[in-house]
Amino acid sequence: RWLIDCKVLPPNHRVVWPSAVVFDLAQALRDGVLLCQLLHNLSPGSIDLKDINFRPQMSQFLCLKNIRTFLKVCHDKFGLRNSELFDPFDLFDVRDFGKVISAVSRLSLHSIAQNKGIRPFPSEETTENDDDVYRSLEELADEHDLGEDIYDCVPCEDGGDDIYEDIIKVEVQQPMIRYMQKMSMTEDDKRNCCLLEIQETEAKYYRTLEDIEKNYMSPLRLVLSPADMAAVFINLEDLIKVHHSFLRAIDVSMMVGGSTLAKVFLDFKERLLIYGEYCSHMEHAQNTLNQLLASREDFRQKVEECTLKVQDGKFKLQDLLVVPMQRVLKYHLLLKELLSHSAERPERQQLKEALEAMQDLAMYINEVKRDKETLRKISEFQSSIENLQVKLEEFGRPKIDGELKVRSIVNHTKQDRYLFLFDKVVIVCKRKGYSYELKEIIELLFHKMTDDPMNNKDVK
């Protein structure tokens, strides 16, 4: 409940479901993202959001880095002693989840948290029964991948769809709603409703972009450097130019009944590719904005002034900046609905092509975002491995990393090693504190990898 009150977990998260167990909470916290977000929510600016890997997926390296970042800030900024904290593996491997809960409880009792007016939860001595529960969690952790259903609650993405719907929603007059409920609509009626939804939501979206430019970008140029402006607003000015032309083309098509709307989407596909840059930089933009709000009082006051001018201050700048990403990923859904009510239309084939084009656009944007995340992950690996003379990006995408025992075929001794598996190679390292010493690079082209849990000695 305390994590929900701190706006770290959404109110409907699975940890509060009637069927929830302690492991559900452990699984939600294991990658360290929510704990880092907690510190930011309690004390904006206490943690550098650029240090957080928001989607570490299955990477033990990145998850532990997040957890260590959390522990360092707890010690340096919140004054918690090392004895009041926990070892990163106590959380990642769920070796001692009781210590994790105890540390979070101490945060809830901290004066910074108390000043938020959020009721703390007590830090009680762990009972023997609790010990049994927490010990069993480590076994459950071995049975569940860290990536299972965990990233459905990343704070930076929560509520994005709700914000979009609230901003872009189309107001339909109540008499019209009652009429549509009473009268059975023909396919042409449904098609016309789809066309109107595309036109009206595009118009509202364009007005939202204009609001951002007029009420945020122009005033904030007076207090931000060009570099900070570019970091926060990315290529929003280019998006506005594209959508000015796009909306005009949609309006012209609607004047002739919308029969040429598919061609409009096909004509603009190439110009809409600029969303790849916008969406792939969104996380960095939000982090930069949050850092500026936390560190500069003049900027924070200016943003508050600007916010009051946009829809009576209902939406924060952080909310508005997410809308373009939500909008561009709606186009294929809008066209799919239009196509379903255009069975007898002569432009049906062109509508199919437009739908495929917008699906391709959505896939391209997601791929660009993944590439950006992958490059950041590779960069983190690169900087942490000593004696590495090659560029890791040459070896393809990272697949998984973690600790394991390696047995030498020479003397059959077992050694603790940390492996990074890429598409083309396995990087074998020895862990040295928070860094790694390179031991070997194994090229997978010349080796065969097998899953041999039964230890079949006949397999060579």
From TrEMBL:
Ranges where the Calponin-homology (CH) domain occurs: 1-112
Record's GO cellular component terms: cytosol
Organism superkingdom: Eukaryota
Gene3D superfamilies: Calponin-like domain, Dbl homology (DH) domain, Pleckstrin-homology domain (PH domain)/Phosphotyrosine-binding domain (PTB)
Classification via SUPFAM superfamilies: Calponin-homology domain, CH-domain, DBL homology domain (DH-domain), PH domain-like
Occurrences of domain DH (ranges): 190-368
Keyword GTP-binding: no
One MF term in the entry's GO annotations: guanyl-nucleotide exchange factor activity
Keywords: Guanine-nucleotide releasing factor, Metal-binding, Phosphoprotein, Repeat, SH2 domain, SH3 domain, Zinc, Zinc-finger
GO terms for biological process, alphabetical: Fc-epsilon receptor signaling pathway; Fc-gamma receptor signaling pathway involved in phagocytosis; intracellular signal transduction; platelet activation; regulation of cell size; regulation of small GTPase mediated signal transduction; response to xenobiotic stimulus
Annotated protein name in UniProt: Guanine nucleotide exchange factor VAV2 isoform 1
Source organism (scientific name): Macaca mulatta
